[in-house]
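Contributing new records

If you add data, match the layout below exactly. Sequence lines come first and carry their own label; structure lines follow with theirs. Keep one chain per record. Anything else will be rejected by the validation script.
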Amino acid sequence: MCECFKKCVNALTCKCVSVLYKCVNVLMRECNLRMRKYVIFRIEYDFFTYILYIFRLIISHRNSLIISRLFIIYVKMCNFIVFNIRKMCIFASKNNIKMCKWNMKRKIYKQLLNWRSNKEKKPLIIGGARQVGKTYSVREFGQSYNSFIEINFITQPFYKQIFSEGYNVDAVVKQISFLNPNAKFIEGDTLIFFDELQEYPDCATSLKFFKEDGRYDVICSGSMMGLNYKDITSNSVGYKADVMMYSMDFEEFLWAKGYDEDFVEMLLSHLIDLRPFNDLEMRRLDSLFLDYVVTGGMPDVVATFINEGNFSNVLPLQRQLLADYEEDIINTPKVSTRPK
């Protein structure tokens, strides 16, 4: 009897964990950062605190009657937790749709289009500070390809092994296909995106080989704060192009607020022709610029301000960004970690 219950508990736990990971994947794919952190916190608190506690009781207990009662509680709690996780995911997804209605148009998108149209293009490295929109911009650009392959060296550290057989493109493609059989490599219409380059700087060595091969477009992105060029075997000098990305400028802020390019062109014409704005225009522009200065132009902060219409949740996000920057500075290696 005891062994039977243990098998049932294990099966139910596997099912519950499977649903949990599916929900987490939905969150990672669809939800904004603030909502994602909240729901994952609730998942961790509810699931790991209650479910695993009862699970340990069931496994360790020998009395069949007590086991059966605990098992009933366990089943009900599993169903309750899974139901609430799914409910929170639905809520978060709907909320995210609302949060993403603002227009995050970035100037770098045009640069990426020009880069793609260049027949002699080199693999691209997009550098910049944390949370300036690098990953989002590349993902949006990747939708213009028939095949977009994203590799994140932080969330998917096992991809660091794709260069174990060398940097030859065919060998790298073979390793990626082994780890992700759904990846499609279409010559001339595939973008490979290596994200969080600072976690595996040696990836930059492969760019020379991708440039010489020429079948696939490659973009790398990462915080330059954590990148130590001394740790790179070969930096592919002459075989890559570097672009720096910054926080949103005032023009991008106006796009996010819903103003179109004609409005921005009108502002520019006033500046070029030295024509003063009327009182209404000046008051409105003064208010918009003050909002931009207060938010600071960081995409997540701007999105929060625009969707909520006030600054109530702006300051906590800004403080968290500052804390993250301070942590990056403290943890930045000052000397090469490569063994001599």
